UniProtKB/TrEMBL annotation:
<comment type="similarity">
    <text>Belongs to the Mediator complex subunit 28 family.</text>
</comment>
<feature type="coiled-coil region">
    <location>
        <begin position="108"/>
        <end position="135"/>
    </location>
</feature>
<dbReference type="Pfam" id="PF11594">
    <property type="entry name" value="Med28"/>
</dbReference>
<feature type="region of interest" description="Disordered">
    <location>
        <begin position="1"/>
        <end position="39"/>
    </location>
</feature>
<keyword id="KW-0804">Transcription</keyword>
<keyword id="KW-0539">Nucleus</keyword>
<dbReference type="GO" id="GO:0016592">
    <property type="term" value="C:mediator complex"/>
</dbReference>
<keyword id="KW-0805">Transcription regulation</keyword>
<dbReference type="InterPro" id="IPR021640">
    <property type="entry name" value="Mediator_Med28"/>
</dbReference>
<keyword id="KW-0010">Activator</keyword>
<feature type="region of interest" description="Disordered">
    <location>
        <begin position="150"/>
        <end position="180"/>
    </location>
</feature>
<protein>
    <recommendedName>
        <fullName>Mediator of RNA polymerase II transcription subunit 28</fullName>
    </recommendedName>
</protein>
<keyword id="KW-0175">Coiled coil</keyword>
Amino acid sequence: MASSMSGMFPGQQPPGAHPVGGPGGPGQPAFPGTANRAQGNNTLVDELEASFEACFASLVSQDYVNGTDQEEIRTGVDQCIQKFLDVARQTECFFLQKRLQLSVQKPEQVVKEDVSELRNELQRKELLVQKHLSKLHHWQQVLEDVSVQHRKPTDLPPPGPLAFLEQASASLPPAPLKPN
């Protein structure tokens, strides 16, 4: 596997990769520890790291902070970002090539990975369904509680201080009327 990772380790270049200049390019400051890299031994990872650092260096550079020409600043930052994106694409291409080689050499490994991904996705979706079911049960209970409250007879007056007397007098037979 180490031989298939050519271009990722010192002294190796992936096919078609072009070395990137120093961090930030000419006139750009570098982060500490990046200037002592050997320019001829840059790997794709080193190039990606250097271009990423150059993006930040261009944003925090005193030349850009004190500069007055906004167009020059924008152009420099755009160049650094474009360089980073180009190296990122090369890195992605490298890994896609290695993935393709792996799928040709060991197709069963790709199938195992696909099955594992499908199982993980199924488990994630089952958890999501359980979460939605618990929310559904909660809201069904809330709706049931509200409907039960509306079914209770509300035509009885609220109990007051004379409620006991009113109930007691309601159970008594009506009083006889006096003849006039």
